[in-house]
UniProtKB/TrEMBL annotation:
Residues 43-52 have a biased composition (Pro residues). Residues 53-73 have a biased composition (Low complexity). Residues 1-88 are annotated as: Disordered. This is Uncharacterized protein. It comes from the Bacteria. Residues 75-88 have a biased composition (Basic and acidic residues).
Amino acid sequence: MTTPPSPTALATQEPAASADVTPPAEDAHVWTEPTAEESTGNPAPPAPPALPAPAGERAPAGEPDPSESTEGAESAERAESAESAVRRDAREFGTFARTGGWTFALMVARSVRPGGAPAGQADGPEPKVSAKEFARLAGCSPERVMRFWRAWDRAADDGVVPVFEALEPGVDIDLPDADVWLGYYTSRSSGDSPRGQAISAVAEAEGIRPTKALEVAENPTALRAAILADPSTAQAARHALLDRLEDDPELGEELAKDIARTGELSKTVASAARTATSVDFVRDIIDKGEMTTPSGERVPAPESVVAEAKQHLTLIEGLDEEDEAPYAADAQKAVRSLVAEAVDSDPQLRAHESRVRFEGKVRKAAKAFEELTLDDAAELYDEELLEQLETLQKAIAECITELRAAGPADS
């Protein structure tokens, strides 16, 4: 037998009524708990404020997240700070790229007076300091500070930058280009000496940085090691020595003595000298269009002799150094023969050559007799010597007679 449910049980099985619709009490047959407002007559306390969502959780949709606004402000501030730092670095980089070491030299030039400011005297609003004090503040050596100071001094002498007296601490000026800086600054203290300045000047003329040349000059042992180990370095040293010989006769004498003391080297030098003389004899005819006669006279060379000399020189220049010597000697011998033939084939030139040769011998004989002294004639007396002198006297008399007979009648 089935028992019908009680009204109370039925009420518990019915779904809750909607919050918007309040059924009449007589129809609901359900007791409802009164709200706090209804029971006490006071309004309900306000809801607690929403707390930020924990890390990794998002706030409910439609509600602003306080953490997002804070992080956004901080990110914007960091971006603005980073941008200003980048701009500052770029600006400083551009300044140094344009001016190079002039930027640092200006700092020294406007702030440093060697020895410091005199007692009771100041340069403008702020007195200049000594190089030692500036170096202490900068955390470097006074020598480094003075290298910049001297570079500015040299540039001021040339009118490239203002003099020290026109500069004030902290005041910027327009600076020269960075490329000009290397012409006045050297990072080595030896560059300030007269010797170092001479080395720097030659280095600049050769198109290299002075610091490299100064470094080599400060370490001759390293230079010797490079010459001994590297053929190309030895060749560069050889060319440099040859170029220096023109302005350094003492070096030439020392090298000549060193060569003479070395047996094999002296023979090689003598052979090379003979070869050079032969080649110069041939080249001289081509370059100047003149030839040297057997008597030593310089006369115009015939075209046939010049053409033959060109052929020999072309052959010599196409040979290796070890084959050059014999061909050079043969070329000189062949060209000399052509010169002699050219002299004999020209009557006027042949007569001139004979006269010059004869005059040369007479001058030599006359000079020899002029140098003789008879202060000790008793010791020089010798019958055979007298006979030679008498024979010479007769030859001279005959020569004079023949020359007078060959001369013009009125002479």
